[in-house]
Specification:
7 strands; seven-stranded mixed beta sheet; 6 helices; Rossmann fold; alpha/beta; 180 residues; globular
Length: 180
Amino acid sequence: LNAVPVMTKWIKSLRLSNKVFVSPDVGNVKRAQRYANAIGGEICIIDKRRKSGSQTEAKRIIGDVEGKNVLMVDDMITTAGTVTEACKILRDNGAADINIAATHAVFAPPAMERLATCPFNKMAITDTITLGSRADAIKDRLVECSVAELIGEAIHRIHHQMSVSALFKEERKSESERSN
């Protein structure tokens, strides 16, 4: 299972024009492409270098973000080093708005300190990890999207020997429509 259907719904609700999907690193390029194919938009990639175990440095952007509404997509945010560095370089390169969609919000220290001053507009996360008051520093910019319905439907389909991949039919349909 993946959170693409849930996050796609949130991204569409933003009703952004002139959007670009940004991969914060090379490892998330396919994820950015999936969203761009499902929703429509270009992709850009942040070229980053790891300085140490939890420290990264964004070096440059592959693609154009100037004046565009950025949707950065990531699988998880742990210490927020990658996200904060990416947001800084995106702002420096003229991004209009920066919104983030991340499946898992681990938010291990020093994530909250970094995110509190990070120049993003909104961040959508799923409810796969309970945050409690840990995210209070960014609660006005945080949107929690539930994956309960998606997981429940997957369990139902498995129990009744039905296709789980059909849950992602909308995404595949959008991809094939765009390639025609």
